[in-house]
Design brief:
- The protein is an alpha/beta fold.
- About 45% of the residues lie in helices and about 15% in strands.
- Helix 3 links the parallel strand 4 and strand 5 (about 115-120).
């Protein structure tokens, strides 16, 4: 495939879409392409300089007339500016809302000659598209894209059911960099967290209500009644204060450690024995994949795209949303049955490398780029 100049737009903060966008960009650079990241700040996964991966920041405009900064218009203007200046071959945007709409405006400003690839990650469909006022806008963004991908079959089905767009959607699942996420030996870190060798449970999220972090705390509190254990909570978000209060109310604050937002989590995951992911909705579940790659079984909700990642009874356990008793039982089984835990560990590592190692996904995105560029030629 010829080398391309690819524009990438994403939300740069902690979250699966931003992670995937930047990791894909890195992989594309390794294959000889040039990537231009267009975002409102430098993405947290992009901390090292690479001359073939440039960042173009969208700066706010402060004007008394505006109650809110018009992010979408500023993003569209920056997309068009970068596309013209660097002769972009394709613009790949993550999230239909608002980035696909921004890209459509940018394409119009570029004379209609800028192919758009949109990747759906979930929030734009599972939450925003439920709003009738936004559904038509999101559908327009999808239909005006030259190609659309989604990170799970569940998300494709959900999009078709809710929006019925006149556009085919390609399934390209998320992937994990197995040179970063692999089983690591971190004895000093583990000893600091669990000095008496207690098993460690871990939850990583943006602490939104949809993540059901209260179920994590309740699950841990009941596990803690059955055996000594520690809980690590990584991340920040609107539910953080509530969760801190719940931890104190359940009397487990001595065994719970809030570690805040972490840009690098491979070491943290590697010292855990079980990952907890009781979300009420996950279009994919990147944290579960990263845990599998590090050899950590996940106990997760049986919803959304998670069954496409976690194999129930093979690499982890899937349980009904909100069924804390079932989560507790699953965690205790893993912590008490060392041979089973070891089997899940090895199966997860093998699945992460074989199915989600990245090569096939990058190949698929390159094929999509080649297709839309050929149509525009």
């Amino acid at each position: 495939m010829r080398r391309l100049r690819i524009g990438v737009s994403c939300f740069p903060s902690v979250g699966g879409s931003g992670v995937v966008a930047i990791e894909l960009g890195k992989a594309l650079v390794q294959r000889g392409h040039t990537v231009h990241v267009i975002a409102h700040e430098v993405p947290f996964r992009l901390q090292t300089f690479d001359p073939c991966m440039m960042v173009h920041e969208v700066h706010p405009v402060m004007y008394d007339t505006f109650r809110y900064t018009p992010y979408d218009l500023l993003m569209a203007a920056k997309m068009a500016q970068v596309a013209k200046r660097y002769c972009l071959d394709v613009l790949h945007v993550h999230y239909a809302f608002p980035h696909a709409l921004c890209a459509f405006l940018a394409k119009t400003m570029c004379g209609g000659a800028l192919p758009i690839v949109t990747t759906l990650h979930g929030t734009d469909i599972s939450l925003l598209a439920i709003d009738e006022g936004l559904a038509d806008v999101i559908r327009l963004g999808i239909e005006q894209s030259d190609a659309v991908t989604a990170v799970s079959q569940h998300l494709i089905d959900q999009t078709m059911e809710q929006l019925a767009p006149k556009k085919s959607i390609h399934r390209i699942v998320n992937f994990v960099d197995t040179t970063v996420f692999y089983p690591r030996r971190c004895p000093l870190l583990r000893a600091r967290i669990a000095p008496d060798g207690q098993p460690i449970l871990l939850h990583v999220s943006n602490f939104r209500a949809i993540k059901r972090v209260h179920d994590v705390v309740e699950t841990f509190a009941r596990v803690r009644q059955a055996m000594p254990a520690k809980l690590l909570l990584a991340g920040e978000g609107p539910e953080l204060n509530r969760i801190e209060c719940l931890v104190r109310a359940r009397g487990v604050e001595a065994d719970v450690l809030f570690v805040g937002k972490q840009n690098e989590v491979a070491d943290l995951i590697s010292i855990a024995d079980v990952m907890l992911l009781p979300s009420e909705m996950e279009s994919f579940g990147l944290v579960a994949l990263e845990a599998m790659a590090c050899g950590v079984p996940t106990v997760a909700s049986d919803i959304g795209g998670l069954p496409e990642v976690v194999l129930d009874g093979v690499t982890g356990f899937l349980r009904p949303v909100g069924d804390v008793d079932a989560f507790v039982d699953a965690v205790l089984v893993l912590l008490r049955d060392a041979p089973l835990h070891a089997a899940f560990r090895e199966a997860g590592i093998a699945r992460a490398r074989a199915v989600f190692g990245g090569a096939a996904q990058v190949d698929a995105y390159e094929a999509v780029y080649a297709s839309v560029c050929a149509k525009g030629a």
